[in-house]
Every structure is written in structure tokens, then in C-alpha cells.
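FAQ: What does the model actually see?

It sees only this:
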Amino acid sequence: MHFINTINKNYLIVFIFLGIILHLISVYFTVGFYSDDEHFQILEITAYLLGINEVAINDPTGFYWEWEENIRMRPWFQPVIYFNIISFLKSISLDNPFLWAALLRLISSCLGFLSILYLYFTFKDYFFKNNKIFNCFLFFSFWFYPFLHSRTSSENLSITLFVISFCAIFQMLNFEKIKFKMIYFIFFSFLMGISMVIKFTTVFSAFPFFLWMLFFKFNYVRIIAFGLTILLALAFGLYIDFINWGSFKNTYYQFYIHNLSSNEVGRMKYFGVDPWYYYLIEIIKQLAPLLSLFSLIGLVLFWFKKFKHSLTWITLITLLIFSSIGHKEIRYIFPIYIFAPLFIAYFIEHIKNISIRKFIQYIAIFSNIIFLSLTLFFPPNTKVGVYEYLYYNLDN
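And it is asked to produce this:
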């Protein structure tokens, strides 16, 4: 395992190329959606804008209840983006809906890969000082990245934009060699606000980052600029909603009323209520055991040792907030698991016994390869694959 402790630029290029290939494979094979929200709240609303789905708004069957006139808690922003992309494809005579979906997955995957590439270069000197070959291989082959990034879900696009904006602002505030420019700071603050427009629960990650800046990087001008720019981005999201509805209603407030307020306890119970420790167990069970166990240990270890770090504030407070909400789904903590390779590296770094460290590394690689194989070549939902087969093999 001598190769684990050496790395050069050629190795890094190989690992980056590996990450690109894995993302492209996932785009090709993972037809369909991971969660129903990806389909019913994003793609079907895009189909509505295209005139294909005629019942998505105020549907009496309840499949699109979030889009009923008296509720209106979903943002138009992402479906509008997809609508414009597909409209362009139609203008050049590409009328295959499965090709549309594949191209949307490709765009999402490319953006997602750029976000983790930015994440790597932002934190490589902090988390990957030693065991560089192992850490870089695990990072760029990490099963979760191609799986998440090839989704057309609001979780993916929101997390992608959040990671990009977080890394940019973090670098401006912490790296002396990077000259601070207010115009860049405002741009990436706006991008973080857009990530909240797309998936409003991203506020549970953005607000802790704001608190961290307030306590540890305080500057009147930057704090005010950050806050006002976030509000501007949220207002822009409401403007997009206003254009598509033709009337104003506060989408974020509606989201709170129908998902988080005490007035909707019955609705939350309908979707299921889980204990506060749900995520601690399900992270280990669902997100590639034993790899996920190592990430959880590293996460907790990092919280205790690096309490003042921005990643501690983001991950800890986000987990506490989601753990306090009755209805829980594993995808809600994807904004935490996106940083998992960093915490795995941090955990392994603190194993002093060389034999045990190597053993843990082998287990981590094995666990990752197993889940990578499962998520790369098998779609998260097989129904859409059946529809695609019928589309290509039967007459209209």
C-alpha cells in the first residue's frame, strides 16, 4: 500500500477522468427517478408547460396536490429551466421525450461534477494531506456523486448550487491568496439564494453558514450584502412563480404551512413520523454500509475537534433541524452526505495503527465499489425503463 501515500498531477488527472466516466455511465443507465417528487413535482410540471400534461395544475386525483390553487407550495423555477431547454431541443427537431430526459440528466450530472471538483480543490489541503492516493480515489469514485448528480430532482440541483456557492464564499473568506471581490461575493450569495428557491429546505444549510460568518468572519458590509442578496434571490423566485401563476402567493410561506407548521400535524402523520434518531440509523443502513458508518464516525469526530469550522456548523445544525421534524426521508440529509468523503478521510487520518488503517481503507473501497456497481447500472425506478422499451419497440 505504499502507493497510498504518494500522488502527483498525473494521478489527479486520472482520478478526475474516472469521475467523469462514472458520471456519464450513470447518466446513460439510470433511467427514471429516485423519488416521486422528482417525477411529479419537476418533470410532470415541465410536461405541463410543454402542453403534454394537461392535469398537473389543480388535478382532482391528488397526485399533484402541491400545485392546487389553494396550496401552491412548489416553485416554478426548475420546471421553467427544463421547459426552455426542451423547447430548444424541439426547435431543432428533437422530439423524443426519453432523449429530453437523458440530456437533462447529462446537464445535471455535468453541473454536479463541477461542484464536487470545486469541493475537492477547496478542501484537499485540509482533509487530504496524507493518504492522498486513497483519498482522491475514494472521492472521485464515491458512489453517491454519480447517483445524485444524474437525477433531475430539486435536491440535486439545489445541493449542486449550494456546494458551488459555499466553496466560493468559503475561499474568499479564508484563503489570503484569493483576493476578495464584492461583486463575486454578491454573485455567489445570489447563487446560494437560488439553491433555496429550488429546494427551500436548503435554508437549513444556508442559515447555519450565515451564522458561522456572523460569529467567526464578522464584517458589517459582507453580512448585510449576503443577507440582502439572499432575499433578492428569494424574491426573484417568487417573481417566477407570479409569472406562471398570474397572481401572487408566497410559495415559501405555503411550504412552511403545509409541511412544517403545527396546523399540518395530520398531514405529516399521513406521510409518516419517525423518531429523532432516524437519520443516525438510516445513514448507516441505506447509504453504503460500512462506508456510511465511517463517514458518520468521521462526522461526529470532526464536530468535537473542529467546532468552529463552517462544515461543523452546516452539517450539525442541518442534522439537528431535520431530526426535529417528524416526517423523515433519507434524501433530506443529502446536503450532509455530499461531504461524506471528507469526513471519511478525516476519520481514517486519526487511526494511528497502520495495519488497522489499511484494513479500514480496504473495507471502505470494497463497500464503495459494491454500491457504485449497484447505482451505476441499475435504475432507481424500473417503471420508466418499461415505458422507454414500449416507446422504442411498439407503434404509436
